[in-house]
Amino acid sequence: MKHIHYEDENSRYIAIGSVEKVLCMLACWVEDPNGDYFKKHIARIPDYIWVAEDGIKIQSFGSQAWDTSFTIQALLSSELIDEIGPTLAKGHDFIKKSQVKDNPSGDFKSMYRHISKGSWTFSDQDHGWQVSDCTAEALKCCMLFSMKPPEIVGEKMDPERFYDAVNVILSLQSKNGGVPAWEPARAQNWLELLNPTEFLADLVIEHDYVECTGATIQAIVLFKKLFPEHRKKEIENFIKNAVKFFQDTQMPDGSWYGKWGICFIYGTWFALGGLAAAGKTYNNCPIMRKAVDFLLRTQRDNGGWGESYLSCPNKEYVPLEGNRSHLVHTAWAMMGLIHAGQAETRPDTSSPCSKANN
């Protein structure tokens, strides 16, 4: 119970996710049905409630910080800053306030926790659990805001808070150059044999992810441009090792396996973004050319892309049934091709980006 109470206190009774939330709440109820621990859990149940068209559901996590970061990046790319200043300023304020300001309490290493000061979570500051790609995307937003007029988007973040975020990202990279989501990947793979679920793989221990590696390398490269002397050698090694991770994990067909979205299109988008940030191009990088070939081969006749969820368990690309395309998959594929310079190298109307736009 000591460990359960520690996790509860450090996540403000949200817990790391909905499954742990239920189990920790049940344990507190067994300990004392009328106690404060159980009452505090009850107060945070609304954080997980999602009212859909067909009734109430429980979501796995909140995604406020993640959603806000991508929304802000999209708005900033629109070059309409003068017209949407108040919206950007509110988003900037939310992201700054959502940064985790401290490490877990007490002797957090003895409780098997990693540093969190300077990170962002998937949801909000209360959650407390650092996530590598959420930290990267929010950090990118704050760095982009730091280059905009403060009278429009609000005051830029203090440099020390940028340094704290980078410290978390650097601390998470594995020896193979990959980056995990929550904490350093250090457990033995055989522990996955204890996985109690039938529909989710690789969830018992932490693993390195193409998506997290792609997101973090983009943030680190932008940080390097703004703060070129800060931990210079470590950052250069981070970038070099991340690129090697992409080289080592590319599939024979040129794609990358994505674990946080469906699936090979998703992973390939993040890998191409990371490679482009590291200075790789279609002309100087063979694995980027292979990835572009994969995306070109999988484009549908109507110009879009569509991938089946079956790609995830089968671990090979499976097109969406019925020769259909999916709007989100098309957006991911197009962003991957843009990262690979295809919007510039293929300006004619027969290019894949042009076909998808038509």
Question: Can you walk through the features of this model?
Answer:
With 358 residues, the chain is mainly α. Helix content is 51%, strand content 3%. The chain is built from 16 helices and 4 strands. The chain has helices at residues 2-10, 18-31, 36-43, 64-77, 85-98, 132-146, 150-153, 159-172, 210-226, 232-249, 264-277, 286-298, 311-314, 327-339, 342-345, 352-357; strands at 49-52, 55-58, 179-180, 208-209. The strands form 2 sheets. Strands 1-2 form a two-stranded antiparallel sheet. A hairpin with a 2-residue loop joins β1 and β2 (55-58). α4 packs antiparallel against α5 and α9 (210-226) runs antiparallel to α10. The longest helix has 18 residues, at 232-249. It starts with a helix and ends with a helix.
